[in-house]
Amino acid sequence: MSAAVNAGDALNFDAIIDAFYQHGWVWLPNFLSAELNSALLHEAQHEAELTPAGIGRLGDHQLNQQVRRDATQWFDGQSNAQQHYLALMAQLQTVFNRRCFLGLFDFECHFARYRQGDYYQKHVDAFSGRSNRVLTTVSYLNSVSRGGELALYNEHDQLIDKFLPTAGSLILFESERFPHAVLPAIDTRYSIAGWFRKNASINGVLDPAS
Ligand code: OGA
Ligand code: MN
Question: Which residue CA neighbors atom 2 of ligand 1 most closely?
Answer without folding.
Answer: 193
